[in-house]
Automatic annotation (TrEMBL):
The keyword Repeat does not apply. Keywords: Signal, Transport. Belongs to the bacterial solute-binding protein 3 family. InterPro entries: Bact_solute-bind_prot3, Solute-binding_3/MltF_N. Transmembrane segments: none annotated. This is Amino acid ABC transporter substrate-binding protein. One of its GO terms (biological process) is amino acid transport. Residues 41-270 form the Solute-binding protein family 3/N-terminal domain. It comes from the Bacteria. It comes from Microvirga aerophila. The lineage of its organism: Bacteria, Pseudomonadati, Pseudomonadota, Alphaproteobacteria, Hyphomicrobiales. Pfam families: SBP_bac_3 (PF00497). Residues 1-30 form the signal peptide.
């Protein structure tokens, strides 16, 4: 019996060794980072045109909050924010485009939900913008609260969380409404402007952007009511954890940079700092870039490409921009907001 046990143990160890040798001999999984490096650009899915988030000028140049995040990822990988191909996507096609590898990353004002992660096999890499759904109404409607919208005609983009949330809101408040659903945000806005509906519902940040597109922006009022949580953030496929980690930590790096006082203006000085946390951020200490498959200065490169979180926000969305949106919840955790990032260490 003892001899048999010894034989079984020897066989088990032999099998383990063989398996290990086979694993070592197998080629490494060719993931998204490898594809991006071979291609030389990050393929980034963005909206078809939303002021402040992603828009293209007459020269074909892209700008916006979501656009800057894509450039930060390219900066971290290539030390060159121009190495991005922007792919404009509608709300209905955005997730399929990511799942079928048409894009490497989705940075398109998308709400993080359980169904989208577990049902679509996707992974949200954190929150870049804490938003909430609101309502824009025709000024002549003479309402000051969403609770006065009983029997309203509401325009909404189909295939979005906004469509689900507005139905929940009216049902929960024992009100009725007439839904007018459209395949795109542009179509919903046009219907609102053409008086096919007297209310437009979207994420509140998007409403600020859409109001600027109206022929007479002053004729519309954005109500103060927020009826949902809309955590917006970048999305990757769930089958490539290393790529997910890269995108997630670029997001964290931009937030940490603001907290550490590292900006696009002084990024070049960070490597010479005496502060350990700044030196780790700059890649001088720690060697954390290797854990991501990047150069150790990856975080500093991301900030050098587009600035820290505050710079990105204020340039595209802040009170001095066209949209004029106060930071609110999107302030750092130690400044009255909820923006919080794990440390780089």
């Amino acid at each position: 019996m003892l001899d048999m046990a010894k034989a079984l143990i020897r066989a088990a160890f032999a099998g383990t060794a063989t398996a290990l040798l086979c694993a070592i001999a197998l080629p490494a999984f060719a993931g998204t980072l490898e594809s991006v490096n071979q291609r030389g650009v990050v393929q980034c899915g963005v909206s078809e045109g939303l002021y402040g988030f992603s828009e293209r000028n007459s020269q074909g140049e892209w700008s916006g909050f979501d656009v800057d995040f894509c450039r930060a990822v390219a900066g971290a990988i290539f030390d060159d924010p121009s190495k991005v191909t922007f792919v404009p996507l509608s709300a209905s096609e955005r997730f399929d485009a990511l799942r079928t590898s048409r894009v490497d990353l989705l940075s398109r004002n998308s709400t993080w939900t359980l169904e989208r992660e577990a049902g679509l096999d996707l992974a949200f890499a954190g929150i870049t913008y804490h938003d909430g759904q609101g309502f824009m109404v025709i000024r002549d409607l003479n309402v000051t609260s969403a609770l006065e919208l009983d029997r309203a005609r509401v325009c909404v983009e189909s295939g979005t969380t906004s469509q689900l949330n507005v139905a929940d809101f009216f049902a929960a408040n024992s009100m009725t409404f007439e839904e007018r659903a459209f395949p795109s945000g542009a179509a919903a806005l046009e219907a609102f402007q053409s008086d096919h509906c007297n209310v437009l519902t979207r994420d509140q940040s998007a409403l600020y952007a859409e109001r600027l597109k109206l022929a007479r922006p002053a004729d519309a009022v954005i109500l103060p009511d927020i009826i949902s949580k809309e955590p917006l953030g970048p999305v990757t496929r769930a089958d490539d954890f290393r790529w997910f980690n890269i995108v997630k930590w670029v997001n964290f790096a931009l937030v940490n940079a603001e907290e550490l006082g590292i900006s696009s203006a002084n990024a070049g000085e960070a490597a010479g700092s005496n502060r350990p946390d700044v030196r780790r951020f700059a890649g001088v200490e720690g060697g954390f870039g290797k854990l991501l498959g990047l150069e150790d200065a990856w975080a500093l490169r991301a900030v050098g490409a587009v600035g820290n979180y505050s710079e990105i926000y204020e340039r595209n969305l802040g009170v001095k921009s066209r949209l004029g949106i106060p930071r609110g919840l999107n302030q750092l955790w130690n400044m009255g907001g909820v923006l919080y990032a794990p440390p780089l260490r």
